[in-house]
Amino acid sequence: MKFGVVVFPGSNCDRDMQDALQDDLNKEVVMLWHKDKDLSMFTMDDCIVLPGGFSYGDYLRCGAIARFSPMMESVVQFANKGGKVLGVCNGFQILCESGLLPGVLLQNMHQQYICKNVMITNGTEVFTIPIAHGDGRYYASNEVLESLLENDQILFRYCDVAGNVVAAANPNGALHNIAGIRNARGNVFGMMPHPERASSPLLGNTDGKKIFALLGLAS
């Protein structure tokens, strides 16, 4: 599996993602500039990654301008054909703005930027993964939420150390403690926590590698 990491003006986690994929997962990585459009070097078995940061300075709304970049036109086409796409933090926001994932990411409930380790669960395991965002509060209509629940599209929820999905473990006020979701087809993934910042033994945490494996991106 080969990865393409899209770099927007204001991206600041692109090199973190590149290092995690190359050094910790031993993957081939191609860096992609937002003004380019060519994804012909990737197959449907590969993955395009939208990293964290502040694309276009987060003007208007987070991800609202990035969705109109030439590269995102190609990413949408790639995803619609079945190619894998992962968005982390600002990348998750861009996926929602572009319509590849439902819902939106709103300003944190307490209107403060949060940077810390949190616990998330997939319903079976508990992982310690860092977050770093000011607009990570997942919101969607009741109809969308019901669909996400019925189709098992909620990937991760904020939880306590025992894996309990409780309000006290929710750092930003996200509905249903949602930390990550996927599309109905199962090839587009978005999450606010940063697995690339928890994938190296040098950091004392390799739970991020487990996240990549759960998403089918580490084989």
Describe this structure in words.
With 219 residues, the chain is an alpha/beta fold. The protein has a single domain (2-214), classed as Rossmann fold (3-Layer(aba) Sandwich). It is 21% helix and 26% strand. It has a nine-stranded mixed sheet with strand order 2-1-3-4-11-10-9-6-7, sandwiched between helices.
Summary?
By secondary structure, the chain is an alpha/beta fold. It is built from five helices and eleven strands, in the order βαββαβαββββαβββα.
Features:
219 residues, alpha/beta, Rossmann fold, 9-stranded mixed beta sheet, two-stranded antiparallel ribbon, 5 helices, 11 strands, globular
Q: Write down the CATH topology.
A: Rossmann fold
Question: If classified by CATH, what would the architecture be?
Answer: 3-Layer(aba) Sandwich
Give the rounded overall mean pLDDT. Answer: 97
Q: How many structural domains in the coordinates?
A: 1
> What is the CATH superfamily?
Class I glutamine amidotransferase (GATase) domain
Structural class: alpha/beta
- Rg to the nearest angstrom? 16 Å
The ordered string of helix (H) and strand (E) elements is EHEEHEHEEEEHEEEH
Determine and state the CATH class: Alpha Beta
For the terminal residues, how far apart are their CA atoms? 7 Å
